[in-house]
Design a protein that fits this description.
single chain; alpha+beta
Length: 363
């Protein structure tokens, strides 16, 4: 008998709960309260944490342009932020040292031409039996030495910044030129200009810093106590934007000053919205085997430590308890007894909660 009474009371309690879980409301009342509904949006990413980061360019995509010879800067046509193509003129120097290298090259070429004439002459004399083979060998050895000296003089001009076409032109017209043209070895963007017009530079003095920005990285400072939750391949999203990246490296050392570990993330797509050196705030997301749903925070109601959403049905709204797995800006990731085909109240949840708890009536 006692068990029967208990079962009846339990059934009545469950019936009352079921009634309370259903909010009966008409379409006119929904319109009056300005309640809006939206379809659930599925997601498999769990927000883990926010962390500060910095936009950097990979080291192998950045070059430092320096002066190949001492000289006076007479032109600096490239400015900070300019996009430059490979071979574009970046600077011009007045360099007396370049004239000296040109003179040495012309002298070496002239000696090589004379040696080549002597080589052809002695080869003919050897064939006619006029000279001994030893004489021919000495002439050939001298010609090889002159050829190596001319090659060395050409290489020095190339290292000084002259192009092969300019060197060939110098060999033909013998016209010396003290103007040293420095060109970009890559296509990229000028990040820094490290000298000024009229400056007198020594050899290897820095001129420009140029980078290829087709790939950018994020360097993220992860608190070392949160590192165990993060894995390679986790997604990263810049706060307030649609820019995403993927973690490719987790550092092996902890910064002594702030106790953070450096993580590197490769930005997924090329974007014009980021700048090298820019400080950003990022959110690290982790893939989950369980599908959740992204809903705006305005769709969530709290009651006695539990979280609820209001699911639209023919009679009004069903109060459905859910679990919040993480937060992302003004949205939350929830899971619960939902299929994904439901529509939930995304605006006006406060009025629905008041109606549900008997704090007010639908108008």
């Amino acid at each position: 008998m006692i068990r029967l009474i208990f079962c009846l009371l339990l059934a009545q309690a469950l019936d009352v709960f079921a009634q309370e879980a259903q909010i009966r409301i008409t379409q006119q009342q929904i319109d009056n309260l300005d309640i809006q509904v939206s379809q659930l949006s599925a997601s498999r990413q769990i927000p883990l944490l926010y962390a500060p980061g910095k936009v950097v360019v990979p080291a192998d995509r950045e070059v430092l342009i320096s002066s190949s010879q001492p000289g006076l800067v007479t032109q600096l046509p490239a400015n900070i932020g300019d996009k430059v193509h490979k071979g574009q003129l970046l600077a011009q120097l007045n360099s007396p040292e370049l004239v000296g290298l040109q003179q040495a090259f012309l002298t070496a070429v002239s000696e090589l031409n004379l040696s080549a004439h002597e080589l052809r002459r002695d080869k003919k004399l050897l064939q006619e039996g006029v000279i001994a083979e030893r004489r021919w060998q000495e002439t050939e050895m001298l010609h090889n030495s002159k050829s190596a000296k001319a090659d060395e003089a050409r290489q020095l001009l190339l290292l000084a910044g002259m192009s092969s076409a300019d060197i060939n032109s110098l060999g033909q017209n013998h016209k010396l030129d003290n103007r040293l043209n420095i060109r970009s070895p890559i296509a990229g963007v000028v990040l820094e200009r490290l000298t000024s017009l009229g400056a007198r530079l020594d050899i290897q003095a820095p001129l420009y810093r140029i980078a290829d920005l087709s790939e950018l990285w994020l360097e993220i400072n992860i608190p070392q106590e949160r590192l165990s939750n993060i894995r390679l391949g986790d997604s990263v999203r810049l706060a307030g934007s649609q820019i995403t990246a993927r973690i490719s490296l987790l550092g092996q050392s902890v910064d002594h000053d702030n106790q953070t570990v450096l993580a590197r993330a490769v930005i997924d797509d090329k974007t014009e919205d980021l700048r090298v050196g820019q400080n950003v705030n990022v959110q690290i997301m982790q893939n989950s085997v369980q599908t959740g749903f992204i809903v705006p925070d305005t769709a969530i109601a709290q009651n006695k430590g539990h979280t609820y959403v209001f699911v639209r049905n023919p009679e009004g709204f069903a109060t459905t308890e859910v679990t919040v797995s993480g937060k992302q800006d003004t949205n939350s990731l929830i899971s619960g007894p939902l299929s994904g085909n439901e529509q939930i109240a995304t605006k006006g949840a406060v009025a629905l909660k008041a109606n549900w708890l008997g704090l007010g009536a639908a108008e």
